[in-house]
Design brief:
- By secondary structure, this protein is α/β, with parallel strands linked by helices.
- The two termini are about 45 Å apart.
- The chain is built from 17 helices and 18 strands.
- It is flat, with a radius of gyration of 25 Å.
- Strand 2, helix 9 and strand 3 form a beta-alpha-beta unit.
- The strands form 3 sheets. Strands 3-2-1-4-7-9-8-10-11 form a 9-stranded mixed β-sheet, with helices on both faces. The protein has a 7-stranded mixed β-sheet with strand order 13-14-12-15-18-17-16. It has a two-stranded antiparallel ribbon with strand order 5-6.
């Protein structure tokens, strides 16, 4: 164990972190206690990391025997909700996590396998994972190596090996269009080697990546899972089964909501023909996973809905559809100028804009509105591509 891990593992240090778990880390740095003055930045980083983990990695933030990675790593790590979802997708004899990192995914996915190998090219992360996996009582082989070098030397049983990767964005591509080749390791380049070593692969990508470009670059893709939590898109998961070659299915998931999953494929999306209408009794807004997937025609046709305009990805009908994968609103007024004061007392109303000349913040500023209340001001381009607004109320409480 290195000196840093040895220090943070001391009972007195763990007790101090626990006692000050809700303290302001910056204030601790400015006014450090005499006993920990020399290491106060390290301690403050641990406290900040735990604060960022609350609500996301509660089993980590509440376990003071674990040593936290840097706060930025916590921000970029999978949540317990998305880890649990990924765990449902994988199983087998041997799991290889080629991009181990802080190990959140590795620890979760390993529960579905008999044997797990954690691979990481940064020695300090290997040491940290060794410490934490020992605390958790998990037996996982740790290999300090690059993904590429490890694969060259690995000779396990093909049909019993499952590989997981979470490629990181290279620092020299921060200000450029984000593509999978801008990640390390480069999955497209690594694919032939992956196919030699494993029967199945799961890859986690950032939600800012374009899904069609992923599928084009990874032709062996079997499934794409777009995972949101409470309507906030978190991950794109690419599942590869090298024994299956097909038009990949797209699964849109909104965890911690009561919305159903939505499945489609790009070929069926291309064949759909949307119908259009001005707002009827109900307006439907797809959740963030469906929007990210680009199922703009299929979702409307499948649920018997009409779009408000080709590029306005809102839908309408006279009937309430409870199984729609998103939010449902009932229109209460189309005369916004006359009735805004009735539905927005004190200027409080929730604002949604879709394909509208002004963004939601700009519209709120223009009309002197602020978020709140029970009603929604929905602004969009209508059937005739003209700006329009309606006031609506939520139907149900799905997020």
């Amino acid at each position: 164990m290195d000196d840093r891990l040895d220090f943070l593992s001391q009972d007195a240090v763990k007790a101090f972190i626990k006692e000050n778990q809700n303290a302001d880390p910056s204030q601790l740095i400015l006014n450090p206690p005499s006993g920990f003055k020399e290491h106060i930045k390290e301690i403050s980083s641990q406290i900040l990391a735990r604060q960022k983990a609350k609500g996301k990695l509660d089993s980590w933030s509440g376990n003071f025997d674990l040593i936290m990675p840097p706060p930025l790593s916590i921000e970029q790590a999978s949540s317990e909700a998305t880890c649990a979802y990924k765990q449902q997708l994988v199983s087998g004899k041997t799991l290889i996590d080629l991009t181990g990192g802080m190990g959140v995914d590795c620890l979760a996915l390993s529960q579905s396998f008999n044997h797990t190998i954690y691979v990481e090219q940064q020695k300090n992360l290997c040491d940290l994972f060794a410490q934490n996996s020992n605390v958790l009582g998990r037996e996982i082989d740790i290999v300090h190596n690059s993904a590429e070098a490890f694969l060259n030397d690995y000779h396990g049983e093909l049909e019993e090996t499952f590989i997981y990767l979470d490629p990181a964005r290279r620092d020299d591509h921060k200000n450029k269009v984000f593509r999978i080749e801008d990640c390390s390791p480069d999955v497209a380049e690594l694919l032939p080697k992956l196919a030699e070593k494993a029967s199945k692969v799961l890859i986690k990508f950032s939600p800012i990546l374009d899904i069609t470009s992923i599928v084009e670059a990874i032709s062996q893709t079997s499934e794409v899972h777009i995972v949101s939590v409470k309507n906030d898109c978190k991950e794109i998961l690419v599942y590869i089964d090298f024994s299956v070659v097909k038009n990949p299915s797209i699964r849109c998931v909104n965890l911690e909501s009561n919305q159903p999953d939505y499945r489609f494929d790009f070929e069926s999306e291309k064949k759909q023909v949307s119908s259009y209408s001005n707002p009827k009794t109900y307006i439907y807004e797809p959740n963030s996973s469906v929007m990210k997937a680009g199922a703009f025609k299929k979702v409307g046709v499948e649920f018997g809905l009409e779009k408000l305009e080709e590029n306005t990805h809102l839908y309408t009908s006279d009937d309430a559809i409870s199984s729609f994968p998103g939010r449902t609103f009932r229109v209460v007024s189309a005369d916004v100028k006359k009735e805004i004061s009735k539905y927005a007392p004190g200027g409080k109303i929730n604002v949604i804009t879709r394909n509208y000349p002004l963004s939601a913040p700009e519209l709120k500023k223009k009309w002197k509105l602020k978020d709140g209340g029970d009603y929604f001001l929905i602004a969009f381009r209508n059937l005739h591509s003209k700006p329009q607004m309606v006031i609506a109320e939520r139907v149900g409480h799905s997020k």
